[in-house]
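Sanity check

After download, print the first record. It should look like this:
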Amino acid sequence: MNNLSPVTLIIIVLVLIVLVVGLALFRKLAINGENKRSRPPFKLDRHDLNPVLSPQAAREWEHNGTFNPAAVRDDDGRVHLLYRALGADGVSRVGHASSPDGKSFDTRSDYPVYEPVYGAGIPEESEVSGPKTYNPAVYTSGGGWAGSEDPRAVLIDGRVYMTYVAFEGWHSVRIALTSIKLDDLKKGRWNWLRPKLISPKNQVNKNWIIFPEKVNGKFAILHSIVPKIQIEYVDSLDLITPIESPRLQGPQPGRKGFWDNRVRGAGPPPVRTRLGWLLLYHAQDMAEPHKYKLGAMILDINDPSKILYRAPKPILEPDAHYENDGKPGIVYASGAVMIGENLMVYYGGGDKHVCIAETPIESLLDWLVTYGKIG
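Expected structure tokens:
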């Protein structure tokens, strides 16, 4: 070593440092990778009779799709679905079906129970920029050119509040809010209030959800989950004005190294649990960009902008044939209710069918606590 020049010694020392640091980093990555691989998956159980609702060719108003349902459970325990019905004319409306047990649906509307109106789902003639027809190539979100898309619903103080995407072509994609008395819904009197647009102009907004009860004395509206949970608190849903959401447009980057490295948005309205608010959401793994997958997170009950637990793996993936029938690779959950100890999730399969998946809620919570703690 005495014959080595100072420059050579420096190079040797640097090489040794790089090797030591590299080895430590490799071990850390290997351990992390092993930890991720060792986390067991958790999967919702699909209903044996899926799909529970499918398009009926004789009904032109739902000829091309019955999917992405909102769900509420009334004071008699009956589950009501308000599903997106895509007509032969390329317009999305809302249909209704109900079930005494949340699984077998014994009523289904013969006609739409909600029709979009001008300015909240139906554009003026001069504003139509694309073909006025069913066209999945142009209108990739289901194939319709206008209407009331992807409803979500909550029951608060005897009133059902329904949000939906007021789609009027890609130049106008906004969130609309309407409501109906629970008693009217139960009796099939479709006296909806005129919708209000609650998202701003010149922004593409989807996947806004209302919490099913007040949070700290105010109504809570979640309008983004990336890069963080963003919630607007309002005193009244009836007097609401457009909410300025700072959310960036389009799908957003998610967690690096996880299945949800590309986030699409929130699913059904949150469900209260013993751990906090259970929020289901949609995301993609860029290794499988053609698949919408469903994840879960737990939000703090008093400060739902704080994530406590988050699923390390998806809890539902589009593997069944009816989830690849219309638009391949889609599970899109937009309704969830508790029936006894079971979480019932209502989702659209392949932008075409209404499907059900379920799980004992405690099993899901235990898995999230064990493998999904944040921080």
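If your output differs, re-run the checksum step. Summary of this record's structure: The longest helix spans residues 6-38.
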